[in-house]
Amino acid sequence: MNLLKSVFGLCCLLLSVAAAEPTLHEKLEPLRPLLGKTFKGELKNSTAERPLINVMRFERALNGQGVRIVHSLNDGVYAGESMLVWDEGRESIVYGYFTTADFYTTGTMKTEKGKLVTHEKVGGKVGTVTEVKAVFTLNEDGTLHFKSEHMKNGAWEAGPEISYKRDDAAKVVFK
After folding, report:
1. What's the pLDDT at 94?
2. Rg, Å, the chain Cα set
3. Nearest to 76 by CA among 53, 59, 45
4. Of the four listed, 37, 43, 55, 119, which is most buried by Cβ atoms within 10 Å?
5. Which CATH class is domain 24-166?
6. What are the residues whose beta carbons fall under 8 Å from the beta carbon of 128, sequence distance 6 or more?
7. Residues 71, 74, 75, 77, CA torsion sign
């Protein structure tokens, strides 16, 4: 009888743990370690005279069928929002990134050994940048590194680079 109670208790415990874990589309599972977390980082070219501080938050969205990323630079001077979903036909994570500026991007994301690799096309009021490639790396110490490059005037060049630390007190600001 005690064995039966123990097995029943273990089953109840496992079911309660499984029920507590929110569902997420299986192809978005590599993003789970980022969900519910806020990161704050300083752009590589930031200076004391001209600080460039970005705050980014990852959230489960669309009943687990999507992931939402919101971010703001310097308390909302510039901000954006991305929605990521799995596209079965393209066999890829696809997303739209919408900004407080006059442009947006559409892109794809692949997961590779602890990295998120993105490639996006710029739309809307397109300036000299027409494409963006980036890599997000989640390090073992919990930091998140972002490095990008832009297609500008027909040539690839270095874009923003940011090293983020988790900071759940930081706030993403939209004005």
Report:
1. 97
2. 19
3. 53
4. 55
5. mainly beta
6. 152, 153
7. negative
